[in-house]
Write a structure and sequence with these properties.
By secondary structure, the protein is an alpha/beta fold. The protein contains four helices and eight strands, in the order βαβββββαβαβα. Helices cover 27% and strands 22% of the residues. The strands form two sheets. It has a six-stranded parallel sheet with strand order 5-2-1-6-7-8, with helices on both faces. The longest helix is centred in the first third of the chain and has 11 residues.
């Protein structure tokens, strides 16, 4: 299973990042929720993005923060050395995608929830 960092994790059950945490967990993927909201999601504590927590073994980063808020976190997200970054709808960012791709990171403009439901995560 793919260890997944959820960037923009939240405790708000009305947000897609919350649904993704729940669905990834149900599908057996280890999640690492990272965001600016304190609390837990899918039984895991949300790590504070502002502290740039060190996390090893990330396969996938799934983005849930808009492109206007991403530049501050480019270096941190790339430091996680993921194999791929999923840019969910509304998070697409050509500048960041090109940076990541230049480091050999696979880029997908897709919806994590749909990918899980159709079995191509």
């Amino acid at each position: 299973m793919k260890k997944t960092a959820i960037i923009g994790a939240t405790t708000n059950p009305a947000r897609y990042a919350y649904f993704a945490a729940e669905l990834l967990t149900r599908h057996g993927h280890e999640i690492v929720p990272i965001g600016i909201k304190k609390g837990e999601v899918a039984g895991k504590p949300i790590l504070d993005l502002r502290e740039k927590p060190s996390v090893d073994g990330i396969d996938t980063v799934t983005m849930y923060i808009g492109p206007q808020n991403q530049p501050e976190w480019y270096d941190y997200i790339l430091s996680l050395q993921p194999k791929r970054i999923i840019f969910n709808p509304g998070t697409e960012n050509l500048e960041f995608q090109e940076m990541a791709n230049g480091q050999g990171i696979e880029i997908e403009e897709a919806c994590t929830l749909v990918m899980l439901r159709v079995g191509n995560y």
